[in-house]
Each structure stands twice: as C-alpha cells, then as structure tokens.
Amino acid sequence: MNGRPMPCDMAELSTLFLFxxxxxxxxxxxxxxxxxxxxxxxxxxxxxxPAASFFVLLNGTVVLxxxxxxxxxxxxxxxxxxxxxxxxxxYLADRARAGTxxxxxxxxxxxxxxxxxxxxxxxxxxxWFPMAVxxxxxxxxxxxxxxxxINQRERLLALGSxxxxxxxxxxxxxxxxxxxTAALRERVAGMRHKLGAIAAGRYDPDxxxxxxxxxxxxxxxxxxxxxxxxxxxxxxxxxxxxxxxDHGIEGGxxxxxxxxxxGLDTDWLDQVAAAVDERTLEGAVRWLNYxxxxxxxxxxxxxxxxRVSTLVDAARQYSQLDRAPYRTADVHELLDSTxxxxxxxxxxxxxxxxxxxxxxxxxxxxxxxxxQVWTNLVDNAVSAMNxxxxxxxxxxxxxxxxDRLLVEFRDTGPGVPPEIHGRIFDPFFTTKPVGQGTGxxxxxxxxxxxxxxxxxxxxxxxxxxxRFQVRLPLTAPESGVTEPDSASRPDSRIAPEAS
Length: 499
Known about the structure:
By secondary structure, this protein is an alpha+beta fold. The chain folds into three domains: 4-128, Jelly Rolls (Sandwich); 164-311, no CATH class; 326-486, Histidine kinase-like ATPase, C-terminal domain (Heat Shock Protein 90, 2-Layer Sandwich), CATH 3.30.565. The chain has helices spanning 10-14, 24-33, 118-128, 130-199, 207-224, 230-246, 252-261, 266-275, 278-319, 331-341, 343-346, 367-387, 441-452, and strands at 4-6, 35-39, 42-45, 53-59, 62-68, 71-78, 84-86, 104-107, 111-117, 327-329, 350-355, 363-365, 392-401, 404-411, 456-462, 465-473. The chain has a five-stranded antiparallel sheet. The protein has a five-stranded mixed sheet with strand order 11-13-14-16-15. Strand 13 (392-401) and strand 14 form a beta hairpin. Helix 6 crosses helix 7 and helix 9 packs across helix 10. The longest helix has 70 residues, at 130-199.
C-alpha cells in the first residue's frame, strides 16, 4: 500500500532518536533519497511481500501482527515517534533474511512515516557505519549460529535421555525372555524324561492317546485362560490343592498355582483321573504340568518379544525415520509413541491420563518435529512435578477447538509464577539449575508449532494446574509449510530502541 507523498522536513528528522546524531549532510541525503508518506487507516505492508522499505513513524499509531494459521495475531501496538519497522535488516550480507516482510503492519489512524527504500537504507548503513554493520552482522549471524548449535545440543541431550530410557525399557522384556527361555529348556527336558518313561512301558499304552488328547486340549486352554482376581485365584488354588492331596499327589501346593494360572480347575483334573488308572495318575498329572508350564513360558516369551517389538516400533514412530518429513499424521499415534519413549522418565509416581478424542482427523504436519514438541512439554511437566515432590498426574487431552486440533498437557505441579509467564518461551530462559537446562526447549517448541505449523502454543497456569495448549490447523496452509531454516522469531517488528 502506498501512502500520500508529503514534504520531508530535515528539522523533524533530526528530532528522531535514530537520526539525532547525524550531521546536516547525512540528514540531507536521507530527505533526498527517502520520502515522507501519509497512510490512512489500514494496511501499510503485508507479511510475505518483498521487504522493499524501512519505515520510521513520525506520528500516528501502528500495529504489527503475525499470521498464525488463518488469524493475524497482534504482536505490538505503539504511537511513539521514531519507532521503526520493515526492512530494518536490509544491511545484512544475507539478503535472504531481509527478502520479505516477516509480519504485517497497519495503522489505526492517519499516520506519517519517513520511508527509506531498502537498498538505500543498506547503502547508508554501510557508508556511514561500516564498523557497526560488521559488528551487527557478527552479532546476528553469531547469535543465529550459536542458537543452531545449542539447538543441536538440545536435541542430542534429548536423544541421549531417550536412548537411556529406551535401553532400560528394552532390558526388562529382553531379560524376561532370557529367563523364560532357560526355564523352558528345563521343562522340555522334563517332558522328554516323562516321554521316556512312557516309552519304557510304565504306562498302559491304551491311556497314551487319551493323555495326548488331554494335552492338546490343555494347550488350547492355556492360550484362552482369562485373568483372575487375587481372591478368585486363591480360592481356586485351594480347591486344586485339596483335589491333588485327596488323590495322593505329593507337593500339590506347588502344582496348583501353575494349573490355576493356566485356567484349569478340578473339573479338568477329573477328566485326567478318568483317562488313567490310580497308579499312573500322579505321573500323568506331572507330565501335563510340564505341558502347562511350557505353554505359559512360551506365552511369556511371546509377550516379552512383542514388548521389544512394540518399543522398537515406538522408537521408529517417534523418530519418523521411515516417514516423509511432511505428511498427514494421527496425533494420537505421535503422543502414544512419545509417552512410551518417556515412560522411564515418568516413573511409577507420575500417573498418566489419556483423554483422547479419537474422532479427530489426521493433521498435516512434520511428525518428527511434533514429537519433539511433545517431548519438551512432557519433560517440562515432569520436571515441575519432581520439584513438588515427584508425585503427580499428567493429563494429555485432545479435542476439536473450532477449526483447530487442540493438544493439551496438564500437570499438577506448582505452576508457572506470574512474573515469568511472558518469558518462558524466550530463548535461553530457564528456571532449572545450571547444567540441567539450556532454556531452549519451550523456545524450540514455540517455533515448531507457530512458524512451521502455523499453529499456536499457550500456557495457562495456577498452582496445581498448569496447561500447555497446542493448537494445530486441520488443513495445510495454501502457501505451504515453513521450511526449517526460516522457523525463527519475527525479524520485522516495532522497536522502541535501536536494535
């Protein structure tokens, strides 16, 4: 939008804090190569347009905003003379950084600006302040490179923590599978011994087909066994133990828990007793006990290896190594994989409640980066609850919030103090002790959600109820997604002081 041209007053320019130290020749050059324009209420420039001009407010009121999804979110509003916005980084050697306006500016009343073309602004900065330009470039690029390095360090720290947790989680089922395999070897050896006894003729050959039939039905029963409550299991063990004692089988109290765990009862034992004579009953029961133990151990091995497979699948889902970087994704799958990966950190004292709306559609996203957001927010919640004693509840909720998908992380920690509410998303700001945090977790999360996904990230907190709310658009923006290198905070802003 072009304003109405007006005369440039050198004396007026000299009263602005940006230009008050310039000599007469410099101010003359500004008036000669720049211009004064009057803008009526409305937009001055729009986010995404080429950053063609540097604006300095002479009088009026300006509002800066950023596009977040389909909304324009106000960032700053001021009437202070001399504040500036637009292409104020045009002097940078990296022109791509100042190539477009990273925000929008509008005026709410007739407002006058001193307008300097971006190329002219860059030229006068390099001509008049060459040392300052080098220092500012060094500061800008040095800060950017430092932040990138620390971002990478933050990711490596998170990866190390997750690797330790994953190793711990994998060790438990793997060790269980090893123990079950060793025990299975012993039970199979016992079955071979009993089969040898049968082959030696100690059993009536006519009973063997009946026993084999019972064995096959028993193996099927073990797979279908329903879990029992502790009281039900205890009552059934007493009944089975009494039956074994009544039939002269020694050590019945040792056999009873195995049979009950497999879902077998006295009716099953009656079938065994009917298939063999009294002399061979004990041997048959112990042979079938080996069958039951073998099936239970194979179930345990299956459960353990399934657990390992599930953890590996969760790790792959978490890292998104085999997925396209940008695609539609089910946030519930991402949340579940993150919670599983962080289960070691959550521990037993923190209760996790999942309040999911499973009817929500997939959303266009960078799944791997959203997992990083979930990780940072969960880690933040766990740290807060640990500070309060280690006990607490983490509630992860999803819901439809108008035209957006809401993901909320709620913890019962002490809350965020009101005096730091406005700073928690700032880079390098942390309340953790030295060495325990870089202050970039929430900053990275904010940039991923807001810049890369055109969503929003907010916090609402009172003691005992802190909620981090992520809102994601349900459809991809028409202009596409933001690339990683541009996922930084706005460069185009109103600054009350020279930056």
